[in-house]
Design brief:
Blueprint lengths: L2 E2 L4 E2 L4 E2 L4 E2 L4 E2 L4 E2 L4 E2 L4 E2 L4 E2 L4 E2 L4 E2 L3 E3 L4 E2 L4 E2 L18 E3 L4 E2 L4 E2 L4 E2 L4 E2 L4 E2 L7 E4 L4 E6 L5 E2 L5
């Protein structure tokens, strides 16, 4: 059963998969696709044509702008922010310059992480809270910092591995 809180706004042509929950004051924009069994927290913004896979957990206050694609089993911690333009200016329209950002299966994005547009975060990567991701991220890598740097490797189950960084 799908739950959509009455304070949420779901635009036309947005689709929400069976078993998903959309909580308070969330806006799902036109053409967005939310998969099955997702949990979208309160005060989340999902932009036009954003694609979100199955079994994704998006915590409160996350902004996912047009151009972002999130695959299955991704966790977005509270207040994660995605960008979609490299060089925004209020007086210059750059809607034709949106960059595609892909978050692959099983990725964890810690609270207050910012993802700069145009990158790929590969499977089961783990981004620590408060990090700024400015470049592509390898599968299973553990990234932290401003800008985020790889400090290790994570297992599929989210445990730090004792392997050398290569």
């Amino acid at each position: 059963m799908t739950l959509i809180h009455p304070t949420s706004i779901i635009d036309k042509n947005a689709t929400i998969g069976e078993g998903s929950n959309i909580w308070h004051w969330t806006h799902i924009s036109e053409g967005a696709r939310i998969g099955k069994n997702c949990n979208i927290g309160q005060n989340v913004y999902v932009g036009n044509n954003v694609k979100i896979g199955d079994d994704v957990k998006i915590q409160n206050n996350v902004s996912i702008f047009e151009g972002v694609e999130i695959h299955n089993y991704v966790f977005c911690g509270p207040s994660v922010v995605f960008t979609n333009v490299v060089n925004p200016r209020a007086h210059v329209s750059r809607k034709n310059e949106y960059k595609k950002t892909i978050v692959e299966e099983g990725v964890t994005l810690g609270a207050n992480t910012t993802i700069i547009c145009g990158i790929n975060i590969s499977t089961f990567a783990f981004i620590g809270a408060g990090s700024l991701v400015t470049k592509n991220v390898k599968s299973f890598s553990l990234m932290i910092g401003l800008p985020a740097k790889q400090i290790g490797w994570m297992s599929r189950d989210g445990k730090k591995l004792k392997l050398p960084i290569t």
